[in-house]
Amino acid sequence: KGNNLLALASLTKRFTGRVKLIYIDPPYNTGSDSFGYNDRFRHSTWLTFMTNRLNIARELLSDDGSIWISIDDDEGHYLKVLSDEIFGRDNFVAAVHWHKNYASANDSKTFSTVLDCILVYRKTSAFTRNLLPRTDKQNHLYKYDSNDGMGRWRPDNLSVRTYTAAYDYPIKNPNTGVIYNPPKGRCWMTNQETVQQWIRDGRIFFGQKGDGAPQLKRYLNEVQDGTVPTTYWSFDECGHNDEARKEIKKLFDKDLFGTPKPERLLERILTLATNAGDLVLDYHVGSGTTAAVAHKMGRRYIGVEQMNYIRTLTVERLVKVIGGEGGGISGRVGWTGGGSFVYCELASLNQKFVDAIECATDNATLSAILKQMLATGFISHKVNPAKIEASADEFAALTLDGQKRFLLELLDKNLLYVNLSDLDDAEFAVADSDKQFTRSFYFNSDTTSPPTASAMAPNPTTAAIVRL
């Protein structure tokens, strides 16, 4: 739990180059989310917000890793240009379009939006995309069996569009003597000698009665063990928004999150981009769909969320997953429970005031927050606290939003959380158990002995972690 920019910076110390997949569902900047700025500034602020985090995300990815970003048309095209700059245009993989709504909005004044986009980028050319498992529907097409020991097969076109003169020749049906040439502008898929051998081996099909045009017997055991994904994902395959909301309601018996993603969508992404045991990161983890699906599919995962619902929703959802909850993809993957996770928080300093300011709904609460900030908070070095106290009337005259902006400007943003370099500073009173956990988090995988003072050099962007 914590500000995801600082959390990402904290994670770099241990996980740089080790994350196989990053999936994020960031704010779409539609005006209905947390980016409630004046329109003149909101777009540039959102792009800065994304840039700062994506730059760190790229460093966390392994060379064969990839990042998948959900977005809609409000910022999608700008995000594509931004991501080209950060990850490189050559590392753009695909723009997947997911059919998120199964019904159109009849009250829309222009168009009813039913698609979201998922931008996919790789870290380097070492990235390899997996195949999707073959479905029963696809396998059912292989319904013939010649009892030749090769198993089930289906007829397939023997001609191809890419024309080669050497592959343009007649084929005679050995049963009827009728001559067949490839369709105009096409040719057969291979040379004449190979086709004649296929006829002798019984690999060419001339129809049920043996009097038809030549077709290739395509055996099921010879096709690749999976299918290549397309850039259109239907809600029949990957779920939709209403399905996602019902998954949350089934777990908690009420709606706790406005815009969750369905588990089937994350299952598709994890299937294509990861293998069992790989590390998955979602630094907009929200309702916890990414973490829940990763847990059920045998992946390791890290989730980051700043909002307090991480305790009552995200963490509790994972507790239910460990207990063997049967919703979402549980039946599809045979999930019956088990496993574990660690929940921890960045050690808050000024962030406690930020949270309180953002949640305040009246001026009296903000006035009380100001008094507490001046007494115990870390105020920006640019501000004289005495002058603030002397201008109480001017503060009271501001609007609610104006008071919020003013209070946020007073805070020292470098002290939102306890810096790792201050772990042993008595002023911050970090408990011994939290010190031990913090050291184990940052150093246990890369150090054979406890870190010395020099190993914990000051790093103003790296926050200490507190175990709960």
How would you describe this protein?
This protein is α/β, with parallel strands linked by helices and 468 residues long. Mean pLDDT is 90; it is low at 36-40 and 446-462. Helix content is 37%, strand content 15%. It has a seven-stranded mixed β-sheet with strand order 13-3-4-2-1-14-15, sandwiched between helices. Strands 5-6-12-11 form a four-stranded antiparallel β-sheet. Strands 7-10 form a two-stranded antiparallel ribbon. Helix 9 (289-296) links the parallel strand 14 and strand 15 (300-303). It is built from 17 helices and 17 strands. Helix 1 (4-15) packs parallel to helix 2 (39-60), helix 2 (39-60) packs parallel to helix 3 and helix 9 (289-296) runs parallel beside helix 10 (309-322). It has helices at residues 4-15, 39-60, 76-87, 136-140, 192-201, 235-238, 241-252, 263-273, 289-296, 309-322, 330-333, 351-359, 363-376, 385-390, 392-396, 400-410, 432-443; strands at 19-24, 61-71, 92-99, 115-122, 144-145, 152-156, 159-160, 171-172, 179-180, 187-188, 204-205, 215-219, 232-233, 279-282, 300-303, 344-346, 465-467.
